[in-house]
Amino acid sequence: CLIHFYKRMTAFSEADRRQILESLTQAELETFKEAFTVFDKNHDGTITTKELSTVMRSLGQNPTDAEVQDMINEVDVDGSGSVEFPEFCVMMVKKMRESDTENEVQEAYRVFDKERTGYIAASELRMIFAALPERLSEVEIDEMLRTADKDGNGRFDYEEFKMMLGAEHRRSML
Q1: pTM (2 d.p.)
Q2: Greater model confidence, 145 or 135
Q3: Is pLDDT at 6 greater than 60 in this prediction?
Q4: pLDDT tens-digit profile of 43-72?
Q5: pLDDT score of 118
Q6: Could you give the CA distance from residue 89 to residue 145 in angstroms, rounded to a whole number?
């Protein structure tokens, strides 16, 4: 089934989930429990798509039903169609990690955009990539720059920079 394939592609492994749950402090668990009870409107120990949608709308978000279902499917490892507390904890840690990664990318961009012009020159990125401990060939650097430079101007705005780092991250995982 396509839904189960999607869940396997986006979900943490069982070992990852266990490690995440075991690494949480008592204070983090209490904070997550408080947040969970906000979502769990009928206090049955699960968050349904309806409950998640209601809370998100109350926070000014306007997700479609499909978006809410996708959010639940992403963490619903037991296939119940709703999110139980352990799954909620894994989801919260995942969202916090994504936020940390985004902050790191923003900080890196600020460092390389020394003049605060809103872009980084290809020549600067070429020097940076050439100096990395993991050596990239000229061909690899050229390909990364060419692929990410969507408008072909030889300068990289934040979105192009972020896309390039994502491509580099995927390449290093292969």
Answers
A1: 0.52
A2: 145
A3: no
A4: 999 999 898 888 777 767 788 888 888 888
A5: 92
A6: 38
Name 47's bridge partners: 83
Cα–Cα distance for residue pair 59/84, rounded to 1 Å: 21
**CA-CA distance, 60 to 76, in Å (whole number)?**
24
Positive/negative CA dihedral, 46, 87, 69, 52: positive
CB contact at 8 A, 80 and 46: yes
- Residue 6: strand, helix, or coil: helix
Answer whether 102's CB lies under 8 Å from 35's CB.
no
Q: What is the pLDDT of residues 72-107, one digit of tens each?
A: 888 888 888 898 988 888 878 877 777 677 778 888
Q: Are 21 and 86 in contact (CB under 8 A)?
A: yes
20-54 in b/e form (b: 16+ CB < 10 A) is: beeebeeeeeeebeeebeebbeeeeebbbbebbbe
Overall size of the chain counted in residues = 174
Sign of the C-alpha dihedral computed for residues 164, 168, 169 and 170 taken in this order: positive
Average pLDDT on 136-143 reads: 88
Distance, CA of 133 to CA of 117 (rounded, Å)? 28
